[in-house]
Amino acid sequence: MAAIHPFRALRPQPENAAAVSSVPYDVVNTEEARDLAAGNILSFLHVTRPEIDLPAESDPYSPAVYEKGRDNFQRLRRDAPLVAERAPALYFYRLRMGAHEQTGIAGCFSLDEYDTTSSRSTNGRGATRKTTAPGTWLRCARRPASCS
């Protein structure tokens, strides 16, 4: 069974929440992210797609991109500002896009457990659960975390 732990989320001041809010990093390409974040230094896309703040020919997986993401996150924490919740908690969310809706939970999970999960049938109907490609979880693991 997966272990899930509460964490102290970072939230923007209410008056800046709309400016900080962004689409998920994996639903836009670099140019789309660059266009969406243009003129909005508080957009979270500067953190999740930091290559938008580097020359167009930058490799999105280069160390310079991760460094820029870290720097952008620190700037966002200061300028939005992002404030840590007083107590650790688990967070439920719901996303809607057209007729599609999904609900999830945000918390801290063990990367070791995630990394060792093998592909397997989950419901007898051919659905499978697979680990994410190493490059993908590495990208996520390099992002700043607020778990405490």
Number of strands: 8
Largest sheet: 2 strands, antiparallel
Shape, principal axes of CA atoms: globular
- Quaternary structure of the protein: single chain
Mean pLDDT, as a whole number?
Answer: 82
Question: What structural class do helix, strand and pairing data support?
Answer: alpha+beta
Number of helices: 6
| Fraction of residues in β-strands | 15-25%
SSE run = EEHHHHEEEEHEEH
Helix content: 25-40%
Could you give the distance between the termini? Answer: 21 Å
Count of individual domains: 1
Poorly predicted parts: 118-148
Strand order of the largest sheet: 1-6
Rg from Cα: 17 Å
Mind explaining what this structure looks like?
This protein is α+β, with helices and mostly antiparallel strands. It has one domain (about 5-140). Helix content is about 30%, strand content about 20%. The chain has six helices and eight strands. The strands form four sheets. The chain has a two-stranded antiparallel sheet with strand order 1-6. A two-stranded antiparallel ribbon has the order 2-3. Strand 7 and strand 8 (about 130) form a beta hairpin. It starts with a strand and ends in a 7-residue tail after the last helix.
